[in-house]
Write a structure and sequence with these properties.
This protein is of the alpha/beta class. The protein folds into two domains: 4-129, Udp-n-acetylmuramoylalanyl-d-glutamate--2,6- Diaminopimelate Ligase, Chain: A, domain 1 (3-Layer(aba) Sandwich), CATH 3.40.1390.20; 137-240, Arc Repressor Mutant, subunit A (Orthogonal Bundle). The protein is 50% helix and 10% strand. The chain is built from ten helices and five strands. It has helices spanning 4-8, 61-73, 93-101, 115-133, 144-149, 154-175, 179-188, 193-200, 204-218, 225-240, and strands at residues 17-20, 31-35, 48-52, 78-83, 106-110. Strands 1-5-4-3-2 form a five-stranded mixed beta sheet. Strand 4, helix 3 and strand 5 (106-110) form a beta-alpha-beta unit. The protein is elongated. The protein starts with a helix and ends with a helix.
């Protein structure tokens, strides 16, 4: 799982300067996203590293603060603002304070750098990381049902279950989120968003955003029948062995 901290260590990103929000450097990054519109909510899924050019947006202090607030609402991993003479000439202190208060990593980057090269390199890094994470032992290619039918030991079953949930458990540790519990409740509520949000005492929109994040982290469609059944059985197995 790639984080903002990992991206900072890429050679091509050496000119990114962290201004605030260092406490959130371990936020998982799902993809780089170049912002060129007023809103990001309808275009992102959560976990993106947002690059702000400032050419077509409100880059006043008020506008940048509104962007940061929108980033928090949508579980954005971090924000990079391109600073130069043409658009964002300076980043207001209030925006930096906001990033600190909400542990949202805020970077500045010289406008003269080639943004396309940086976002492509970050994208390649994320894709390579995902490929490495897919290189598990042979048994991980099986479903939980197949493992149980083949007579695997309890330790193998539990290892498989936690491996499948690892993207969510790691995110929960870093972000203090409830992605594992949210997915469990969602499946037990028959994938009903409204029922699950009421059960968890959270707003429907919060539930929708969590599911977007869970889908992104697991890199699968949790509403597909075979996927839904697989994770439902995983939670049942963990409960049976007293692991929940």
């Amino acid at each position: 799982m790639v984080t903002c901290r990992d991206i900072m260590e890429l050679e091509i990103c050496t000119n990114l300067k962290l201004l605030g929000g260092a406490a959130g450097l371990d936020h998982p990054v799902t993809w780089p996203f170049i912002k060129n519109m007023d809103t990001i909510s309808e275009w992102i899924h959560g976990g993106e590293l947002i690059f702000v050019i400032g050419a077509k947006e409100d880059i006043s202090e008020r506008g940048l603060l509104a962007l940061m607030e929108e980033a928090i609402r949508n579980d954005i991993a971090g924000v990079v603002m391109l600073q130069g003479e043409d658009y964002i000439k300076s980043i207001p202190k209030s925006v930096v304070r906001f990033s600190e208060e909400h542990s949202l990593p805020l970077f500045k980057m010289p406008f003269r750098l080639k943004l396309i090269d940086i976002t492509q390199e970050i994208s390649r890094f994320i894709v390579n990381d995902r490929e490495k994470n897919r290189e598990h032992d042979d048994f991980t290619e099986q479903s939980l049902f197949e493992l149980m039918l083949s007579g695997k030991k309890k330790e193998d079953i539990l290892s498989y279950c936690w491996m499948k949930l690892q993207p969510l458990t790691e995110a929960d540790k870093v972000l203090k989120s409830e992605y594992v519990r949210t997915l469990q409740c969602y499946l037990e509520c028959n994938n009903d968003i409204l029922h699950t949000s009421k059960f968890m005492y959270i707003h429907r929109n919060t539930m929708i955003n969590r599911l977007k994040k869970i889908t992104s982290l697991l890199d699968t469609n949790i509403n597909a029948v075979e996927v839904r059944n697989e994770f439902y059985n995983i939670f049942k197995a963990l409960d049976y062995y007293g692991q929940l």
